[in-house]
Amino acid sequence: MELALVLSAPLIGCLLLALAGHRRFAPELNAVMSLVTFAAAALLTVRVIARGPLTAMQAQFFVDSFNVFLVALTAFVAFTTALFSRPYMRIEAHHGRLNPARLRLYHSMYQLFTFTMLLCLLSNNVGIMWVAMEGATLSTVLLVSLYRTPASLEAAWKYFILCSVGIAQALFGVILLYFAAEKVLGPGGTSLLWTRLFDVRTELEPTVLSLSFVFLLVGFGTKVGLVPLHNWLPDAHAEGPTPVSAVLSGLLLNVALYAVVRSKVLVDGALGRNFSGALMMGFGLLSVVVAAFFLSRQKDIKRMFAYSSIEHMGIMTFAFGMGGAVAAFAGLLHMTVHSLTKSAIFFTVGHAAQKTGTQNMADIRGLIETNPTVGWGLAVGSLAILGMPPFGVFTSEFMVLTTAMHEHPWATPFLLIALGVAFAAIFGKVQPMVFGETSARRLPHPPALVPVFVHLAIVLMLGLYIPPYLIAWYRQAAALIG
Amino acid sequence: MDQTLIGQFVSLLAAILLLISFAMLSQRRVLTLIKLFAWQGAALAASTAIVAHTTGQPHLYFSAGLTVLLKVMLIPWALHRLIDRLFVRWDVETLINIPATMLIGIGLVIFAFALAAPISHMAGTFTRSTLGIAMASILISFLMMIVRRKAVPQVIGFLAMENGLFFAATSATYGMPLVVELGVALDVLVGTFIFGIFFFHIREQFDSLDIRHMEKLKEE
Q1: Where are the domains of chain B?
Q2: Residue range B121-133: average pLDDT?
Q3: Scanning every residue of chain A, which has its alpha carbon at the shortest distance from the alpha carbon of B155?
């Protein structure tokens, strides 16, 4: 019941906003539909915590502690981003960058995007998971090119082609997985159900599964933004409207990583942990290091934080690759805090760019003077994402580092150097933007800053104190994927 | 009909599929490319129908019908109309000259067969020998996307890759579950639609569909 509501709310929202997305009340309607989705997700979470995993519709949908946590996070960030997009899109329309038709497209696709991500998380069928993932690309590609500038069209084309090709590789991985499953489970629709595959995971043919995992990792890894498949990510983040950058960074990358981890669990059953673990650790470490060094070369503020997302996705991939209870726990925690912090940063960056009329960091100065909340939000958010204590990012990065020292000491120097380089790059660039002289103008609508501080407060809380039910929840999920 | 004869017939269709992939790789004219793509879809549908007939799996008939509808009729027709309206019947430019591309393509075929050998060994389907061909045509379409400079041929390359994937699915496993196939077909259709919208936007902005105009976003 709750499950049906979680999926139907954004779908209904998509249809309603396709009709009325250009009206004056559309941004509010968008936020309300997202709130309904979030409420349904919260109910679903309560139910799963109380009664354990559940399946629905002849086991086509499946909820356990791992995906319910991501469903709650996705619905929450989608809701706060809808709140942020309310003034943000109004200001954009005021500045003449959008017309009513494009606003309608934006609102409708925003809801559809939420729907595809939730479908991807909740689907038990690996094939449908793939379909939803491709759907997420399709629903955001026109959002990236929403402003129809040459640069945004180029970014969207790159996003479309690279992600479609990547996801086609993943489809081949799914075909191979089905091929292996059919041997054990027989043909038919139920052989691609994750729960059934999980039951027989030790009997699946190892050679086929190893090949399948390579294709799945490359395919879904393209969407995670793993180096060297990351080319689309900075462009898509920089050229699209900021709410879209916030959900791409905060949610889509998580969902793609979720798909990788789900496949990893199956492959580990057939092959043992070493094969998939080594691949993921390699890709993760490469992403962390390469992204950290690219950070310092960026001039565009949204591009810089996009590279920071690649870096953090690398850390998570590395953590899940190491495996084990502590590393998986750290990976899940990092997913949560990264998604909250990064979307908060994008909210402030969006308003800062609107105030100064540019995304070029050299031209953004003195935010604290003109709008203290935007300035402080950016400063605090940047410190949080850089892993300063007492924020939650510090906790998870600390856990990843200590586990790495213990189990894979060779990787630790790379991680530490990358984190240091990232710190120097981001801190050095954010500091003059926040302080310093300014000539920024006032915004025609009051900026939405409540979401920023709610997100940062949760991240701060997770750094100081993780509530016991949350710990139990992470532990369950970590045990499932560890 | 007797099994070996059918098996040979499917192999023949697989060979045609691969041949068309090579023809697409060497083709310079966009209109011919679209025709070739439609023929590739027809070969795919025919082989799916034959597999459906021999194995008696009704959902494969459905899949074959869907392929005919989408990939032989609807998408080629839409692409045709699109290039008519955009006046883009140019000769395709390639990044690497065509003989060199063909040589790389042959290398890919050998690689694909080496990769597929251990798997097709395990497959119980009578069409298993064609898995290598399916993989080869996926890789060739991939190559085509890399070497082509214009938007329309890139998209045709993408769609041809999808054909190869479907062929792999039928030859290795007698097709994916129906719900998945429907979902994939929907994604392909919506994707083509969005590509169409894109062509107009790109053209409006750049006055051309040459991807070379879109190389502004680079790292300094």
Answers
A1: 3-217
A2: 74
A3: A161
* Closest-CA distance of chain A to residue B179, Å: 8
Question: Over pLDDT 90: what percentage of chain B?
Answer: 23
Which neighbouring-strand residues pair with A125? A193
Angle at A309 between CA A303 and CA A315, to 5 degrees: 145
CB contact under 8 A, B177 and A127: yes
Q: Does B66 touch chain A (CB under 8 A)?
A: no
Q: When comparing pLDDT for A291 and B210, which is higher?
A: A291
Q: CA angle A261-A167-A246, nearest 5°?
A: 70
pLDDT number for residue A277: 92
Helix (H) or strand (E) holding B130: none
Q: pLDDT, tens digit, for every residue of A276-323?
A: 999 999 999 999 999 999 998 999 999 999 999 999 999 999 999 998
Taking the C-alpha atoms of residue A381 and residue A430, their distance in angstroms, rounded to an integer, is 10
Q: Which of residues 10-29 of B touch A (CB under 8 A)?
A: none
As beta bridge partners, residue B210 has B150
Listing DSSP states for B80-96 in one string gives HHHHHHHT--PBPPBSS
Q: What angle do CA B203, B209, B211 make, to 5 degrees?
A: 125
Convert the pLDDT of each residue in A74-83 to its tens digit.
999 999 999 9
CA of residue B36 relative to chain centroid, distance? 10
Return the pLDDT at B220. Answer: 47
Contact B29, B52 (CB under 8 A): no
CB < 8 Å to B115, chain A: 211
Band of pLDDT at residue B5, cut at 50, 70 and 90: confident
What totals of helices (H) and strands (E) does chain A contain, helices first?
20, 2
Closest CA to A134 of A192, A174, A75: A174
The tens digit of pLDDT for each residue in A353-397 reads 988 888 999 888 888 888 888 889 999 999 999 999 899 999 999
Please state the pTM of the whole predicted model. Answer: 0.93
Tell me which of A109, A133, A147, A172 to substitute to probe the interface with B (most B C-beta atoms closer than 10 Å): A172
Q: Are B181 and B172 in contact (CB under 8 A)?
A: no
Tokens 């319910």 belong to residue: A68
Percent of chain A with pLDDT over 90: 65
What is the distance between the alpha carbons of residues A13 and A40, in angstroms, rounded to a whole number?
14
Sign of CA dihedral B74, B77, B81, B82: positive
Rounded Cα distance, A283 and A285, in Å: 6
Residue B37 has pLDDT above 60, yes or no: yes
Burial of residue B97 (CB within 10 Å: 0-12, 13-18, 19+) is exposed
B202 in contact with A, Cβ within 8 Å: yes
Structure tokens at A239: 């050229």
The C-alpha atoms of residue A23 and residue A16 are separated, in whole angstroms, by 11
Residue A193 DSSP SS3 = strand
Smallest CA–CA distance, residue A300 to chain B, in Å, is 11
Asked whether residue B126 carries a pLDDT value surpassing 80, the answer given is: no
Quickly state the pLDDT bin for B91 (edges 50, 70, 90): low
Neighbours of A30 (CB within 10 A): 29
Mind giving me the DSSP string for B48-104? HHHHHHHHT-HHHHHHHHHHIIIIIIIHHHHHHHHHHHHT--PBPPBSS-HHHHHHH
- What is the least distance, in Å, from the CA of B214 to any CA of chain A? 5
